[in-house]
## 1
Amino acid sequence: MAFKKLKNVDSIDLSFNEMTELSYLDLTDSLKIFSLDFRANKIEIIKKSFWAGIGFLKILHLTQNNLISIEPSENILNHLLKVNLNLNQLNLLNEDMLKMSNLIEINMENNNIERIETFSRHLNNFYILDLSRNKINFIDYFAFKNLTKLSKLFMHDNLIKNISFLQNIPNLVILNMHNNLIETLTTENFQNMIHLEKLFLRNNK
């Protein structure tokens, strides 16, 4: 797909089609295109070449696809601000997936993610993360150490037991972890959260 000549278009809606993968899009000269909508397709994979052609894109909607794999970009993406990946089939979150230095929000609700190892060190401005309604049962203690500006974290409706990782997220304002399997709370879990305003822990163990 090439949209190189669409000089005055600011958004493209390709939702509710039959697309199965995303590869190279030539948006490199389309300075006004800030939003792409691929909702409700049948996309299973995002190819590495896709990231090379998104130009100055700021918002990417991929809700309600069949995504099982995201090939990481070879370069740091400087313009993306918001990515919606909810209602897909992703089962892994690793450091290479999100090389997006100005990303502020990502929604990965309703996927099949089970483990969180670590987030990219390039997420310098990231402050909203939704991982609710997955199958998360393991979170590395240092998984969030690179997300220094993270202020809103939604992880409700998972299978989380251990929340020691929270000690490495000092700037949280909102934390939602209801409907998990948390058995024990200690003062150490929350002692660094001096900015916390809303805490949801209902329906745990």
## 2
Amino acid sequence: MFKKVLAVSMLFVSCLSGFISASACAADFSNHKVAVVYFTLLQNREFSSNDPQADKKAGNAEILADMIAEGTGGDLYSLKTVKKYPSDYDETVDLAQEEQDAKARPELQEIPDMSSYDTVFISFPNWWGTYPMAVATFLDKVDLKGKNVIPVCTHDGSRMGRSQRDLENALPESNVLDGFEIRGGSVADDADTKEAVTEFLNELEL
């Protein structure tokens, strides 16, 4: 028992001192069943001919979700709408605002079952100051009562907007933790983004 306590103490000191890499000091999710749900426009839009986005492998929210799933051992779920958003970006921006104003709930192809999870990350882009209405559809359809819920938001300068508050209001009986935000232009499948995500995971207190 003494050896176990000593080993944990040495690991804690090493993490603080920077002697061990950030990934080795990641928060312990072994006692949690984690789901990582994400909505990305790339998987929910039409593509025109010669569309420069057509060859893009993953959207920003998906990249972050992949990293979080890897860091937590969580299961990945993508939210996909029945009706695709337009290929024209400006049209999509206008439609997103219309959906928000109307409190619309876009139909999803599938609603992932969250019943077996106690911790749910939700990764999304900031659309008009909050999460897309497709995420609101998901929130309405699943029971997250008593679960840890962590928002993960990409943006172009507005940070979390009001998405943190909106999530707390939508889930009054969930434990909504402070979320992670990052500029969309800074997201890449690289070491810098992984370091930022790992640091965030390290600081979570579940």
## 3
Amino acid sequence: MKDARVPIVLAIDENYILQAAVAIYSLLSKGLTNKESLIVILIKGEISKDGLSLLEILKKKYAYCEFKIISVDDSIFSFVELQTKRLTNTTLYRLILPEILNQYKQCIYLDADTLVTGDISELLDIDMSGVYLAGVIDKKIQEKKEYEKEIGLPHLKEYINAGILVMNLELMCKEEKSKEFLALINNKYLFDDQDVLNISCYGHIK
């Protein structure tokens, strides 16, 4: 039986714990007071004592919210050469969320450096029937001439930014999209996993 909650997911390494804490604070301080709220933090390796102490402060302040920390062995991505050099392998964790969080129907993914300025509760109720992803159109990518040809898409009208996503985990898991994502990441697209998600989910993006 699927867990009815819609987890909010962030992926980090030890260097991004402070940024993630700020993102979570901005998220919870602006709303999301649902008593079923769940924050899932995917971290490379183990979280430090200082990191745990920081998260403990948030747990006490927002006692209605459950925090779940999942350690990820990212050796699965050892073959990947990221094209965006400032990124680390943690950006790729969103590609395997359908497998890691297969007990949930949907999730909201946030980049760990996101500053939330309003209540995002409405994202919990988006109808994801028949679509893999919902997100915000990436206008900068749309302005890149000929980029659709570079990545093999008919057009970029549906191309979304991967920093904030609503993900239909149930449908992705059923159709084994993570396997497809991992196969595509070998193609060394300019925008790495963001391109992979847009290519693989083309035609089923909201």
## 4
Amino acid sequence: MSALITFDGPKGVGKTTLIQLVDDRLRELGYVVESLSEKELMADAMGTAVDHAYLDLKARPGHASEESIAVLHRQGRLRIQETRLGRSMADVLLLDRWYPSDAVFRRHIDVASVIRANLDAGVRVPNLALAVTCRADVSWERALQRKRRLDSKVIDTFDEHAESTARFESLAQHFGWHLLRTEHATPEALCGEVVVLIERTTTLR
């Protein structure tokens, strides 16, 4: 079975850049690597159901509409791991977002319960769950400088972004995800740290 390495965190923390660097470095070391995105896999697994649920959340924000999104994501993850993750022939799967991202985006329901529901349902636990984060003001400015800007279905303001960052960091500590701060290190240095962590926590070596 491929080693599953997940990258989760608030918008603008540098996940995409880091994943690409880690992918390149692992390939240089001779590993077979596959980089995937939960967003794209979810669309394949669930069709338009998740998009429609987000539209409902925008129209009627609250517990019921957000619970529907959480359930759809949990169901989608179970399908993804059966149809895609479990069939990969790669040594390492680098996955951009997995259930830890519920800690970023779920605002109206108890997020710890949502994550436990994923685990209880059998959603795959990563070999290494990386909680990529930085100060909220830094990631906010980074996100606004990107071509795609903030690009969020649920977060519109800095205060919401700061709240989600604090919630994510707290739950990362609670669930034992590996916190990786990006405000004081270069992407290249972080890549080196992640590659070492991957080789330490998996059976690749």
